[in-house]
Amino acid sequence: MILPDHRIRTLATEHDMIDPFVDEQVREDVVSYGLSSFGYDMRVAGEFRVFTPNVHNSVVDPKRIDERALVEHEADDHILIPPNSYVLGRSIEYFRMPSDTLGLVLGKSTYARSGIIVNVTPLEPGWEGHVTIEIGNGTPLPAKVYAEEGIAQVVFLRGETPEVSYEEKQGKYQSQQGITLPRLE
């Protein structure tokens, strides 16, 4: 079942599923964030890694990412993503997924309607950490993403506890802090 606001609130406040947890939807003069009817709108921190073309004749290879192709960027208010480009960010919130709950991270329509796409990603049962957020600018213009504001919604699905949780299988992204680059193991 998809978890409604009151169940998300209970998991966040009594079981530390979301930290820090905002118990309402904040909407005034910001891209919204916080608890919604059937999800939680997470925020993007002011830390980014920007892919920079041809810095070292690098190729983006998920098996062997060349960190020299990524430039660190700190944003007080926002970041401008170059046209047809891509950045990595991270959630402000730290998630601790219960063993019977899956989170699905979906981009917010406010950004999608502006050509800014957030990759869909699962938060598996038993996983914990900051969410590394993949943000693409599909437009031919620079695109603005606001730090400390909403970037994606997490929808929580509750089911049976799996035989082996992400924590138990010692997943490669368990307890990740900050922006975490691709790993094979």
Overview of the molecule:
The protein is mainly beta and 185 residues long. The chain has a single domain (5-158), classed as Distorted Sandwich (Deoxyuridine 5'-Triphosphate Nucleotidohydrolase, Chain A), CATH 2.70.40. The model has no long low-confidence stretch (mean pLDDT 93). It is built from 2 helices and 14 strands. Catalyzes the deamination of dCTP to dUTP. GO terms for molecular function: dCTP deaminase activity; nucleotide binding.
Give the N-to-C terminal Cα separation.
32 Å
Q: Which value, in Å, is the CA radius of gyration?
A: 17 Å
Global geometry: globular
- Biggest sheet layout: 6 strands, antiparallel
**Which architecture does the CATH hierarchy give at level 2?**
Distorted Sandwich
- Beta-strand share of residues: 35-45%
User: What is the number of E strands?
Assistant: 14
Q: CATH topology, anyone?
A: Deoxyuridine 5'-Triphosphate Nucleotidohydrolase, Chain A
Mind telling me the CATH superfamily name?
Deoxyuridine triphosphatase (dUTPase)
> What is the overall number of helices?
2
Oligomeric state of the chains in view: single chain
CATH class descriptor = Mainly Beta
* Residue runs with pLDDT of under 50 for 5 or more positions: none
The structural domain count equals: 1
Q: Which secondary-structure class do the elements indicate? A: mainly beta
Topology pattern, helix = H, strand = E:
HEEEEEEEEEHEEEEE
Average pLDDT for all residues = 93
DSSP helix fraction: under 10%
InterPro entries: dCTP_deaminase (IPR011962), dUTPase-like_sf (IPR036157), dUTPase_trimeric (IPR033704)
Function: Catalyzes the deamination of dCTP to dUTP.
EC number: 3.5.4.13
Family: Belongs to the dCTP deaminase family.
